[in-house]
Amino acid sequence: MNERFKIAIKSLLQPDLLALYLVFIVLLNVFPYFPKQQSANELSRLYLAMSMVDHLDVSISKAVDQYGFIGDLSYTNGQYYSDKPPGTAFVVAPVLHLKRLVDSDADLKGDLRLARLLTAVIPTLFLLVLIRREMIKFKVSTTSRTIVIATFGLGSLIFTYGVLFYGHQLIAVLLYLVWFTITDKDLSPRRAFVSGFLGGLCFSVEFQTAIYLLPLVVVAIKRANPKARTILAAFLGALPLLLAIGVYHDIAFGSPFKTGYNYVDNPYFAEIHSMGFMGVSYPKYYNFMGSLFWPSKGIFFWSPFLIFGFLGLRYYGLTKQERRLRIAMVALPILFVTSMVYYYGGGTVSQRHLTPIIPFLMTPAGMFLDRSSRGRLFAPALAAISVGYTGLATMTFPHLPDTIANPYHEVVVPLAKQGYLVETNLEAVFSSSAFLIAVAVIFLLLLVHTINSWTVRPRRAALAAVILVVLPLLFFDVTSRVFRRPAEDQAKSMEYFEDQFWDEKSPSE
Question: Of 40, 316, 343, 467, which cross-links 71 as Cys (Cβ 3.0–4.6 Å)?
């Protein structure tokens, strides 16, 4: 019995599981909340869920009157509506109704906390467990799994949108689940029904996922067995969500085929959505560079560790079909965002529209690191940069304005230096600063463990350690010198942030 207990404890303390526990703790406790900001994307979704529960109505006019005007609204027939697809509200409303049975009073902050838990935090934790399973299936080493889980969990868009009530992280999870259900085993009618339901829910959360789902539909049709019954089951699985979307649009906008984007209240965004097809036209070089490389939104600027995921795509899968499908799941969101008329995405950390590609890069990243000795030399340093940039921004202010070309150095760093950090659910025990330091120390220990596990020769371990110290400092120095505004403009921005988004003076004062 004692021996079994020891084995069980040892299995629960594997390094990659410790990385999972760390990410779990952080996601469950980080709570960015800025009531003065009125986070438009989140509140547009939350107002709809609250209105459905509290007023049995899809109009959010009463919520707007009660909690404040926001930028993401649709307006028609004298009423305000959410300009977002209704899927997130479909997920949150039933549980919000149960919450009202216990506590009848509406609470914007408490309801937002619940919405984030249901659509971001819990799905993300489930996602990471499945991706760990996938990495084990493809024989990714424990050490590579550890650094991939920790870095993607705390230093990529998974972290930022895993603690916010946007649709991006939920569709990232749902797309991965659809992929999982159609590829993990033979596609029976029962599994097809589940995949159809997940796909329908995915579409109800963000309409552009219709594009991302196409390659999965093609693969599902090829794998269907028996074909007719399986395809019918998938359709029946998706049908309830498709009908719910149509009914919602008919009630709100007078037609199942009219959406909130047809009635956007903000004149600027109304004009944007009138261009091309609902604001989507053709790929542009500027959008490509901005979304991938530039300091404002570029995913490689904010999370350079992602490069290993792209490099690992060539190793992914047991067949060419598996590899091509994985590449398609990464390429389509990039194609979409580079084709947007307004690619900036508003106040964000990195390019939020590329969140759906992140789960599909994790296993390839682990596979690449297992095969590349040079990659293993640089991986700890790039992991530190990714967490230091995306992680710190998420812990400081995850709604960085798209009007600033280098928001990390002009917003995140100055705010962090003055002690401005988001709330955590552990503030009764630890301050946000103490929580951040504890997470940083544990992450650094994981990186040290990674170096020791990967390298047998002392000289190579020493070289990896030197790179871990030098490369982040060099990256910080170089990126602090590009796309900068005059000091006077930066000072004005800081005054604005301190005045608009924080009720109290800097903790350092």
Answer: 40
